[in-house]
Amino acid sequence: MYCDCSAPVKEKKSALLLVFDQVATKPSKLMKIHFYLKFHTKVGEALFVTGNIHALGNGESNQAFPLSYMDNDFWQGTIEINTEKFVPITYRYIFQTAEGSLVNEWGLDRVIDNVKPGTEEVQLIDIWNHAGEFENAFFTLPFQETLLKHSKKSTRGHSPKIYTHIFKVKAPLAGKDERICILGGNQALGEWDEDSYVPMTLEGKWWTAKVSLPKESFPLTYKYGVCDAKHKKFLYYEQGENRNLHGDAVDKKMTILHDGFIHLPNNTWRGAGVSIPVFSLRSKNSCGVGEFSDLKLLVDWAEKTGLKLIQILPVNDTSATQTWADSYPYAAISAFALHPIYLNLEQVAGKKHAALVKSWKKVQKQLNAHPELDYEAVMKHKLACIKELFLLEKENFLQSDEFLEFFDKDKHWLLPYAAFCCLRDRNGSTDFTTWKTHSNYDKETIEKFASPRNKHYDSIALQYFTQYHLHLQLRDAADYAHQQGIILKGDIPIGIYRHSCDAWMEPSLYHMELQAGAPPDDFAIKGQNWGFPTYNWQQMAKDGFAWWKSRFEQMTNYFDAFRIDHILGFFRIWSIPMQSLDGVMGHFDPALPVSRSEFDQNHIWFDHYRYTRPFINDAVLWEFFEGDWEKAKAEYFQISSEGNIELREEFNTQRKVEQHFEALEKNEWNARSKSALMDIISNVILLELPGSGGQQFHFRIAMENTSSFRYLDWNTQQQLRDLYVNYFYRRQDHFWQQEAMTKLPALKQATNMLVCGEDLGMVPHCVPDVMKQLGILSLEIQRMPKDPHKEFARPADMPYLAVVTPSTHDMSTIRGWWEEDREKTQRFFNHEMGQWGEAPYFCEPWINKAIVIQHLNSPSMWSIFQMQDILGMDGNIRRENPHDERINIPANSRHYWKYRMHLQLEDLIREKSFNAELKDYVHASGRA
Q: How many Å apart are CA 141 and CA 751, to the nearest integer?
């Protein structure tokens, strides 16, 4: 079990608690409530119950009511309440580890209400609701509101006026014409006669039956089953052994059994979806870029092909530099504001400004004809048009009830964001540290700055106007998708842009002196530096992660599910000092460092200078500069007083090198020198922990690839290698598990969206178990197996709580990958596809199709495909050059995100034969 960051329960109350009103008056009527929780514990562990009344701590974990150990199977406790002021009681259980950490069970759906008049005792027999139970996924927003939303036309279940017991069970996968029933070994439960089953009524999440059981019924065996509501016919029992109930039936006593989930196959629901950035959509009426309104056309196509989910990349405003660099969707200037580029101008203008729309048509057609996104041209046109519309509509707009309602709800982020944009434009930069005024955010001052009385108010209100219409259009697309039985999946970036409104408003929530990134991998051999500040989790925890919860609440306006980008960052983030640029110069944070004393304990020769400074000799210079090594030595290096070759002061950090060469002419020597100096700076073995006085260190990732390591003697290499393995793969795991469990449970409980994690890269051993415990879906990719001993993962072996996909936006498509490594492709062709002979050089349609079908047949809950991989199945409609379809290259931090579909969505919808074939494949795989 794991800690969810709640404070430990400090003191226990008695097992029998008398509860009076808040005033010191004796209640005239008391009712006992007995809690019995089926839960097996070890020595030192404990259980508590918390709820919405004083006796249960009013929902505060550190005031929860303690239960007492009863036997190997049950914990129990009793409270008394005043029934004259009875309110429905909502409660749940808390587990306390031997170390004192707390774990809340999942959900908050047990309610004590409708207690019969005269009841003196209520007995609750409960089963712990583990967050990782598959069935809990089916009570999330997408399933409850869209995918499993169907009316129960059955009549009400068994509800006698006199009853002693209430049986409750959950069955989220019960079909439209199915209902749950109960049968057991006495007359009240039909004596196992399938024609005499007791039908149950669906009340909220629980199927419920009220039954009067005589004393002689106990002990009682029973089972839940499924019946045909339409034909009133018993169908089948739940799986597993009979359930047992011990106890009795006493006058004025009522027993409620919360029996958890019905024992039926819980991994039968499977769906398929499509993934594509909004900017990549193309329609007849879009303006050089996909727009929120185009999502409705994508929904129409998805409905025709049997797909149930549309996944998109982040759609927040990234307008920082007003250049193509803003095409990077993970560098938002606001975690709440939407990007103006996705606004459909014609919908904003309406019929009232039809003439204005007509005047834009020529530019719209020109932009839409481009094969790729011309970010700067599209933004220039759209921002001008939005401003024109705003000036025509501002008087009516700012006074409208609809806008005022929107503003009131979202003012906490909207007003500061609008002020931030105004100040960005005034100062020509989002780097608020360089602003002449308002560089430090003050709520009261900024509210005055955004006052309608100011001359610059139009530039403030323009942002209100833009965000309001973006909200309407994305909300409209989401509503339309739901009407068609399709859900939207969003994307939450792991970081925030350094010069963003969020960092401006609350800089203490972030480590502004650090940069987030990722360690080296096959896609980025020098690692990645995203440039984002890392999170100050300790500060965020002080207000219960309020910023994150607001972020989730905002996403719920539009999305049913979301992908947590780089979920590993909740365990530990790759942290890079500001003076470094390459990701390889980072280390995991938090992490347990290597101490100076460990070198002595392991009999490792320790030389602080040798391990922590770039190792440079003439041979190393030849390695990087070849025949020009002497020229480089004279230009960039110096000899220290100890006779060591060192970098000159002006070249001793990567950031200094970057700044130096930015000002120089772009030629071969300068480019080569810059690259070599960057690599030499990273030619170290240890990274000293600042403030440790030379006593604590992190290992430089990929240490063995450095010439510094290669020049050590063999024995020292082996000793360092052992300590390196211990540092990266052994000592951190439990620590990182605890770190994740101080954040993820609280954040997951803050939303009912379906949570999916992108758990790729250098994955700690604890990650799969934590995600499984919390019911977070993993990401499984065939060409990136999680088993290091396998070259490829097999879709047929993927876990159920997972998203399986052949590629993501950070990779080449199926067709692009096929051409990258001929030997690997050949092995895939023979061993994974089971084909004989030589693999085709190009990925022919039948190969692409076979890979898609492999993934459709996976047991995972979701199979999601990039649009390019779906279109690749058909030789007539797919793009000619697969390398034009790649969305991102992670190794290139200056990549231009400009991919657009080569087909218009209207034309794709008309591809009847292709769409019907895809739908057949989806349905044949058993996906919903």
A: 9
Main-chain dihedrals φ then ψ at residue 291, nearest 5 degrees = -130, 165
387 contact partners, CB below 8 Å, separation of at least 6: 462
778-781 and 802-805 as β-strands: parallel, antiparallel, unpaired?
parallel
Q: Which pLDDT score is estimated for 17?
A: 42
Of 472, 340, 341, 479, the residue nearest 397 (C-alpha): 472
Identify the band that residue 85 occupies on the pLDDT scale cut at 50, 70 and 90.
confident
Does an H or E element contain 80, and which? strand 74-82
Determine the Cα angle at 876 with ends 870 and 878, to 5°. Answer: 40
Q: Which residue has the tokens 């309001």?
A: 468
Burial tier of 316 (Cβ tally within 10 Å: 0-12, 13-18, 19+): buried
CA pair distance 280, 236, nearest whole angstrom:
48
Question: Which residue bears the tokens 């560089």?
Answer: 439
Strand partners, 37: 75, 126
**592 contacts: CB under 8 Å, gap ≥ 6:** 731, 732, 735
C-alpha distances (whole Å) from 161 to each of 70, 214, 220, 582 are 33, 15, 22, 73
Mean pLDDT, the chain, whole residue set: 93
Strands (E), 241-361: 243-245, 253-261, 271-275, 309-311
Count CB atoms within 10 A of the CB of residue 659: 11
Per-residue pLDDT tens for 431-469?
999 999 999 999 999 999 999 999 999 999 999 999 999
**d(Cα 525, Cα 519) in Å, to the nearest integer?**
8
Average pLDDT over residues 29-45: 93
Instruction: Of 677, 673, 688, give the one whose Cα is nearest residue 647.
Output: 677
Residues 563/758, Cβ–Cβ less than 8 Å: yes
Residues 6+ apart with CB under 8 A from 175: 150
Q: Which two tokens stand for residue 251?
A: 């006058």
The string over 889-920, giving b where at least 16 C-beta atoms fall within 10 Å of a residue's C-beta and e elsewhere, is: bbbebeeebbbbbbbbbeebbebeebbeebbe
CB 318 within 8 A of CB 332: yes
Confidence of residue 803 (pLDDT cuts 50, 70, 90): very high
Q: Tell whether the model's pLDDT for residue 818 goes beyond 60.
A: yes
Per-residue pLDDT tens over the stretch 849-890: 999 999 999 999 999 999 999 999 999 999 999 999 999 998
Q: Please report, rounded to a whole number, the percentage of residues in the chain having pLDDT higher than 90.
A: 87
| pLDDT attached to residue 299 | 98
